[in-house]
Structures are given as structure tokens and as C-alpha cells.
Design brief:
about 450 residues, mainly alpha, Growth Hormone, Chain: A, 2 domains, two-stranded antiparallel ribbon, 2 strands, transmembrane, MFS transporter, membrane, transmembrane helix
Amino acid sequence: MNDTPVPPDTAGTVPRRRGPLSVLLSAQYLSAFGNAVTIVTVPLYVLGATGSPIATGLAGFANALPLIFAGAIGGVIIDRIGGRRMSVLSDLFAGVLIGLVPLLDQTVGLPLPLLMALLFGRTVVATPAQAARLSLIKPLAEGAGVRLESANSWFQAAPRLGLVVGAPLAGLLVAVSGSVAGMYVDSATFLIASALVAFAVPRARPTANPGGKLGFFRQLTEGLAVVKTIPVIGAMTSFVFVTNFLDDAFTPLMLPVYAKEILGNGEYLGWLLAASGCGAIAGTFLYPPLSRRFLLSRRYTLLGCFAVIAALRLLMVAHPGLVVMVALTFASGLAAGPLNPVLSTVMLERVPEQLRGRVFGLSGAVAMAAAPLGILCAGWVVDGSGLTTALACFGTAYFVLILVSLRSRALRDMDAAPATVTGETGETGETEKEPAHG
């Protein structure tokens, strides 16, 4: 036992290092801003360069297609090389590939197939970055003395804030300097984010990973095994798949139809999207303080937020005017704000460190797979029965899902103390049951 005296002002305390967490969050916000700039500049650039709506559509397809599988594949690589290194490499390659688009076009020329390849590759390498940084949140938050709920809320707010702030700024940049300048700025945001993590986020301590020498597909199935062996993870993954199926058609399909057919002016869509985005940002940042006193149960927070969203969808069936509709979309975004922080907090507590990349990547892939299916089905309902019927059906389906989920024993574990990990695939043993709300 060490008998060296400890100074009174430092006895019993652990030095807090907030710098690494702040840097990681800064990289997340920069990367999110870069993604928002990509959404705006890529279609405008391709349309301006080719003059072809078909080519612009193909570019969007090439840019979005890897979202379905790149997260799951990237998750395996994260667990092999570490979240820090994956974050650095993802942003570095994304910055280089998106920067090559205007550079090649202005120098040697850029044929359409090469453009598609660059956009496809950019999304492949950029997609795992979010999961990579998320895998680092727990140790950095603990080192900074920050509640996991707070760190996750700050982290999850980045994509929403990136769209609300980054997309209009990108549009302004394109209007002033052209889409070429916008793409160079896009590239710079990724490169700076890569450098921040490389030079200011410390390397994680080595962890025992007995499965590290397994084959790629065996490691992928290990991630699937975690979903099976930790029931709450499987239940949340299934819940998110269904809710994404029900919800992901709202912004790209139902809101535009509502603005055009009910409000009578498609330009009102911008107001509705802005209100929804601002509400989501506010809800995300409000969750940490509210989780201390009011939103104590993660399970009831999850189901309650979706109940509010369902009720708001049903209120829209009455076809309110613009002012009320803006208020409803803001409230809907506000209710959606706590959802990602709640889910990611539970996953960080439950998933073994050496498997987080795979589980986060797989859950992201599952969520992305639900989106096109939901949009397709919603399109059929809107086209066949009208927007009112679609809003009523989807809102009612939410309430049915919530009633079914209330009976789920696995979801009740969202409020149980994290279990101890006893096996490399995530088998768990029970710990003393205590509230896990920090």
C-alpha cells in the first residue's frame, strides 16, 4: 500500500480532462456541418456541371446507397482498429474524396462515372465516422466528469444543428461563391475534424479483445450475437426499425404534400422544416437537465416522446393553418429531441467496449434500411387514399406500437443498472438493481 501523503486539496479526487471530450464534440459538429454542406452543394454542383436532372439523380443515388451497408461494415473495422483511428481515417478520406470532385473537374476533367465513384466512395468512408466517435464518448465523458446523458445529448445534437445551420449557410455560400467553393469548404470541414481527433483526443487504453483475430464475417456475427444476448439492445433495435418505418416518410414526403395541397404553397415547406429542426435541437439540449428531475425513466421517456409525436400527427388530420402547423412541427421536433440520447446512453452502458463499433454500425444500418421501405409505403397510401388517411394511419400505428411496447419485458431493462459483461460476445450477469439515471 502506498503511504505517500496526498495534498489535502487533491486527496480523493480524480483530475478531470474536459479537453478531449470538447475536441471530439467539435469534430462531430464540424463533420455534421460538412455533411449538411454536401447535401446542398453536390446536387447543385452536378446539375450545374452536367445540366442533366438524370445525372443529378444518379449522383444523389450514389451518395446515399452506401448508407445501407457501410455502417455495418465500418463497425467491424472500428472494433479492429479503434474508434479514434477510424474517426480520423473516415474524415480524412471523406475530405480528400469530396475535394477531388471540383479539383479534377477544374484541371483534367471529371467524367460522370468517375464522379459517381467519388461520391459513392465518399459516403462509404464517411458513414462509420459517427459510430466511431460515439464509441469514444463513454470513456471521455467519464474522464471529464460529465454525465453520459449530457455528453450523448451534445453529441446527438450535431446532425440536427448541422442541417438547420449548415444547410442555409451552404446555400448562401453557393449563391455568393458558387458550388465549387462550397465543395472545397465541405472538404476542409472533414480534414479539420480529422486533425482535431488525431492530435487532441488521446489513444484509448488497450482492451482485451479475444475475437480480434477472427474473420470479418465472424466478427460481424458477434455484433448480431450481442443484440440477441442482451435483450434490451434487441428490443430497442426492433423498436427503432418500426418507428423509422413510420416516421422517416414524414419530412421528405408528407410535409411537402401538406405544404402544397393543404397550405396551398410549397414554399411554406421551409417554415415547417425549420420549425421541426429547431424543436429537435431544443429537445436534445433540454434532455440532460430534465433527466435529472423529471425524465427519470428512460423507458417512459422513450415511449412518452413517441406518444406525443403520435398525438401531434393525429392533430394534423384536422388540417390546421400555417401558424398552428408550424407550432405542431416544432412540438414534434421537441418531442423527438431526447430519443437518440436515451437510446445511445443505454447502448453505451450495456454493450461491451470491444463490440461497440459493430453494434452501433448494425443498429445504424437497421435504422437506414427502414427509411426507404417507410417512404415507399407512405407514398402508396398518400397516392391511393390521400394525405389525411396517411397521417391517421401512421399516427394510430404509433399508439399501437406504444401499447405493445409497454408490455415488453426487455424494454423495462432500460431503467435497470447496467449488467456486468462475462463473455466476449456480450453475455451478462445481473448486478444489483439500482436506478441508472446518474
